[in-house]
Amino acid sequence: MKRYIIALNALLVLTMLLSACGPTATPQIIEKTVVVTQEVIKTVEVTKEVQVLVTPEAEEGALPRNETLYFNGQQWGTVVGWNPYGSGNNNAMAIAAGDNARVPMFETPYLYNMLDGQMYPLLADGPWSWNADMTEITFKIKPAAKWNDGTPVTAEDVAYTWATHVKYNTGTGAGNTPYIQDVVAQDAQTVVIKAVLGENGKALNPLAVAAYVSSNYVAQKAWTQKLEERSGGDATALQADPAEDVAYSGPYHNFFSDDTKVVLIRDDNYWGQDASMWGKLPAPKYLAHIIYKDNAAGSVALAKGEVDVSQQFNSNVNLLWESYGLPISTYLPEAPYGIGASLPTAFYNLNSYGLDQPAVRKAIAMAVDYPTIIANAMTNQSATFDQVPRSLMNPTPGEQALYDHEAVKDLQWAGNDIAGANALLDEAGIVDSDGDGWREYNGQKLSYIATCPNGWSDWQAAIEVVAAAGKKIGIDITTNYPEWSVYQTVVTKSDAPLPEGYDIFMMWSAGAGPTMPWGRIRNLLSSEWVGQASNWSGNWGQYSNPRVDELIVAIPGETDMAKLKEMYTELVEIYLTDIPSFTLMYRPQSFHTVNETVWTNFPNQDDGSNPPVPPLDCTDGWGIACLYNITLVNP
Amino acid sequence: MKAYRKYFLKKLSWFAITFVFAFVLNFTLPRLMPGDPVAAIVARLAQGMSDASGVQAIYQQYSELFGTNKPIYEQFFIYIGNVLRGDFGFSFSQYPRTVADTLKSSIFWTIGLQFPAIIVGWIIGNALGALAAYLKGGFDKVLMPLSIFASNFPAYGMAVIFMVIFGVALEWFPTSGGYGFDLIPEFSWRFIKSVITHYQLPFWSIVVIAIGGQAIGMRSMAIYELNADYVKFARFMGIKDRKIIGYVFRNAMLPQITGLALSIGTMFGGALITEIVFSYPGLGYTLLNGVMGQDYPLISASTLLITLMVLLANFTIEILYGIIDPRIKAAQAD
Q: From the centroid of its chain, how far is CA B11?
């Protein structure tokens, strides 16, 4: 009897446990959701809203849902520090200086707007200006601008920040000293940036000097001195300081961070509520970023309404509203859903056998099936090359207007042109002479390895399509995917020819910014990167063309728009003729997908904002204006 | 007692030798991977930098700081110094955090998840396995296929299935994180409840697999023992079933205890993927990131930790064996 009681008990435990694995009808459940029609969709929305109302208000230890804006896709891994001089803070919510600087905590004098290419004053008062000789830029600091301790932000802070970057040779210092000679405070409000001068007595690179005002944070002089003191003048210690006590001028500051999240809290004394800036405080009290381990986890959270603003690649993002009926949207309602800004690019190793022949390079690029890449790798979150023909420009109207479309029309290709590619190769005498199905150049078979980092699934999908194109035109292209740690070491070592296995490889190009498209073109084509032991800039295929170098040097100093357009057009012509690399897709600056369960009125193409608020996750450059525009769905 | 001390010292010296070799390998192996870890750091820092000399400056600075430009034997002595200091040096991928700091914040989550899961899985699995062997018949016929099914499931597969069913479809449990996305850690009922809710899916996805494996092992061992001569002999002697079962399970338990020790020893790397699937803030993800980012000090420290745990677990087991099973002690001491 006892035996049976034991057995019965054990069975009970087992049933309880295994009931877990019992109904494994997962796909069915999902299918049901998929089939839901538009009317039902409304019901889903209502349910979500009710859930939000049910969330208890301001409970101890909790972030009230309707006071918190949740993010994903920016912060990966634990926050290390809050140091505006540091290089390893791994603090994406607070510190991301650059072309579209992230400004919730630290602020730049100006905010760059990637949609209209303009800079709008933040800490600065009115626009900046060059002097008549074009040797220095002058701007003023807003009288209202204050640090969190209530002291005013002054020109001296700007100057001291620069001096510190130079003194301790930070990335910002080292990266800008070739163009900026000094930053000085003329008086309490007036900042003068003195440019390094070129042979003509004018600024050597006016673009880089001007970009400084929107790309770099201003740190407080008093706090910087404190930091210098405790790091004992040691550059490494200064940059490694976690700076929990840092002074900031922005509307948010450090509230909480651990291995699972980072939370910023609003400073209700923020100077920006002054009429001379925003005139009010940003809407959310908290900015919270949960640290998801991968995109899949982030996507699930977005769908569940635990994320409001998503800066990650959500594959097939349109299904979230089309099939699942969730209140999720992107900047554009239709494909490509966002504004393309950077150009993920396939580079040719110009030292590989046969790839020194422009005909071979062009034939491969012409044969590639770009629509498949865009549909598979980007799930249509990229404009096609029929919509935005290839050049060196991203799809923003500002950049597109910089070259003569008619002049390069004959050079552009939209892909899938097998006949054209075959004809091109035949014409160049690169044919299959031994009948094995593969073409030879000077008797040697054309055989290449196309590569990108392992696990970068969108890039791998793209590289597979490139390899398939080769086979269609008689060029043997196989794929290989080394680990990123190996890949990046090899690709960025530009002081020696690339080793075997890196004939065609993928890397990125710069996105939108105040020095673009010049900066991107320089990265893609300038020969100054060839010979660098650690080349993170570009031109990894080691292309060299004196005329291109000449144009790259000349463009920053050119102010005549007609001449500029001429120069850019020439660069596009050269790029599409020489084809040292070719764009595979367009990628947005930030993936900007929003869930409007709690917050609404996010930037979108038809939001009527003027100036337009860019889809940069409510944190970057002029994109931060979003935080002042969003409202609660249920106030 | 003298024999036992001899046995103990002999074991200890063997473990010391193993540790020294493991220590050297822990240091060397990660550094034999192709690729340059500093290049990866520079990649992160150089984003948006317009000038090449700035990038070179950063590269130099970090090579110097991490000592990757020094000869490998010098790096080894630096490593020993760092280990002795207790912080294991700077983590490359999370600089300026030290490795100890990095591990400290995640290790409790992993122990909290893995240790109970291993123990619960082990107890339930062994109980079920022993019962299957003892009861035979229908119970065995149901349990065996289920156990084989569960134990052969990859951990991430089980995790994904649990997540889809209980997290996404039924919405019973949250799908990611160690506690509520809208909470800040504090000592409150709400927070504790949230931690418990978030614990369920990763916990059971590990437990169910462990149960399967343990049940199969225990069942075979118990069946083997049940048919052993001493059992038959004991039955003929008229000894009570209960007493015999006690002997049987004590013998069948020995390999299972080794298994348990090994599970506990390897628990830091064990359910790495389960932690990743549920975005659980444990060591698994830290270690994976360390490997991907060629964070030598972090990899070395993690593997050293695993080595120590395995050695310690094994050592404890060997010593316990001496007590549980006098045959071993006797054989070894000779």
A: 23
* Inter-chain touch B285–A297, beta carbons under 8 Å: no
pLDDT-derived band at A554, boundaries 50, 70, 90: very high
CA distance B322 to chain A (A): 32
In angstroms, the separation between the Cα of residue B254 and the nearest Cα of chain A is 23
A219, A250 in Cβ contact below 8 A?
no
Query: Euclidean distance between the first and final Cα of chain B, in Å?
Result: 13
Q: Which residues of A touch B57 (CB under 8 A)?
A: 169, 171, 174
Looking at residues A401-411, what average pLDDT do you find?
A: 93
The answer to whether the Cβ–Cβ distance between B53 and A178 falls below 8 Å is yes
**In the structure encoding, which two tokens stand for residue A120, read together?**
């709008």
Dihedral in degrees, nearest 10, Cα atoms B237, B242, B245, B246: -100
Domains of chain A: 2-73+292-335+592-632 (3.40.190), 79-253 (3.90.76.10), 343-587 (3.10.105.10)
Picking from A20, A77, A208, the nearest residue to B204 by CB comes out as A20
pLDDT digit string, tens, across residues B2-32: 777 887 888 889 889 999 999 999 898 888 8
Split at pLDDT 50, 70, 90, the class of B322 is confident
**A625 min Cα distance to partner chain B (Å):** 23
Question: In angstroms, rounded to a whole number, what is the distance separating the alpha carbons of residues B296 and B286?
Answer: 13
The ipTM estimated for the assembled molecules is 0.78
**Do A297 and B176 make contact, defined as CB atoms within 8 angstroms?**
yes
Predicted local confidence at residue B288, as pLDDT? 79
In this structure, of A304-318, B149-163, B192-206, the range with the lowest mean pLDDT score is: B149-163
Contacts of B51 in chain A (CB under 8 A): 174-179
Euclidean distance between the first and final Cα of chain A, in Å?
Answer: 64
